[in-house]
Structure formats: structure tokens, C-alpha cells
Amino acid sequence: MKLGKILVLFIFLFGCVSAGFSYQAEKEFKLNLQAEGIKTFEIDCGSGYLKIRGAEDLDRIEVTANLVVKGIDEDEIKEFKADHVTLTLGKKRGKAVLISKIESDILSSIFKSKSARIDLDIRIPKKLALDIDDGSGLIEISDVNAAVELEDGSGSIEMENIGAAVAIDDGSGSIELENINGDLEIEDGSGSIKVTDIAGNVDIDDSSGTIEVFEIKGTVEVEDGSGGILIDGVEKDVDIKRAGSGSVTIRNVKGTVKR
Prior knowledge:
The chain is mainly beta. It is 11% helix and 61% strand. It has helices at 2-21, 77-84; strands spanning 24-34, 40-47, 50-55, 60-70, 85-92, 95-102, 115-125, 129-136, 139-144, 148-154, 157-162, 166-172, 175-180, 184-190, 193-198, 202-208, 211-216, 220-226, 229-234, 238-245, 248-253, 257-258. The radius of gyration is 22 Å and the shape is globular. It starts with a helix and ends with a strand.
């Protein structure tokens, strides 16, 4: 009898938790900041996608933030934001600073019956350099004419049409970059890497995942743990400092090749 009561109670609790996942609340917030006198835009964000697009004639930073919380209804989302979310855009020491964070402890409630993220869609003047610290989620960056520094936990990274150097420190997730007008440095844990049309030098330090490198104007240096390597079309030298496991294919290199 006791066992039966326990089983009924468990089914009831499981049903309540499952019901919590069957609905979610969403609310959109907009933030703006004049970009006059600002050269660098710092972003500190947690989970959720991050999309950044540069615009030629824009004189301010425009942020559209969409808070998505599973397990609560629309009436509760304002209170959730007030109690558990930091979402601010301001100016600090001559830099623009965006903070988009959800308290980590709120997501460890019983049976993890709540989950939350903040999706960010951002438009910026093309001249702004980016310094990003991201937790998890897809990252898309395009049409920026200044340097980009990115530290990312997990999630795919896509960049195109960047007018200066790019440096990426990534935990996991695929990386795909195209048309970078400067040097490229990648330190990666796991996930495939594909880079195309890089005007400067390329330096990749990768633990695991395939590496594909195409159309490089400068030199290429690769240090790899596991996964195949394909390099095709390099104007200067190629140096494979370490190739763990996986095939290595190198072709159309005008400089020297060191393996």
C-alpha cells in the first residue's frame, strides 16, 4: 500500500514537472545607447543566441533582447526578470557595456522544472570593435569593420565580413568564418573549424574536430589533437606544429610546408 502511494505521488510530481515544460513565457525588451565617442563594445552574456550585425549609417547600439522562460506563464515573467535577470546597456570607461545574465541558481530548482535564456539581436555601427564573453548558444556576427575578440563556452560560431583581426577562445561547437580582413587566431576545444578567405595569418590550436582552411593570404600554423586537416590555397608558409590523429591534406601552397 505504501509503495502504491509513493508511486502515485511520484507520477503526480512527474506530471507537474512535465506540465511545467509544456508552456513558456516570452517577453521582448529593447535597449539603445548612442555610440558617439565609443570605440569598443563589451558584451557579457549567458545562454541564448547572439546575433550582431554592423550597419554603415547607424550612430547608436540597438539591442533587442527576448527573454524566454519555460515553466512559468505570462503573468510571472515580469517578476522573474526583476528577481533573476540582469539586462543592462551602458557606458563605462569609454566603452559600451552590455550585460545579459540569468542567475544560475534559479535554473537548478527541483527536477530543473524551469529553464531560461535571453536571445540577443544587436545592430551596431560598423566601426565598433567587439569584446565578447558568451556562455552558450549560437553566435552570428557579420559586417563589422573592427577587431573581434570572443570567449565562448559552447554553441556554433559563424562570422563573415569582418574588417580586422579576429581572436576566438572556444570550448565546444562548430566554427565557420569567411572574409576576415586581418589575422585570425583560434583556440578551440572541440568541434569542426572551417575558415575561408582570410587576409592575414591564421593560427589554429585545436583539441578535436576537423579543420578546413581555404584561401589564406598570410601564413598558416596548426596544432591539432584529433581530426582531419585540409589546407588548400595559401599565399605564404604552412606549419603543422602537431597533427594528432586524422588525415592531413595540404595543397596549393606558394610558400614552404613544414610538417
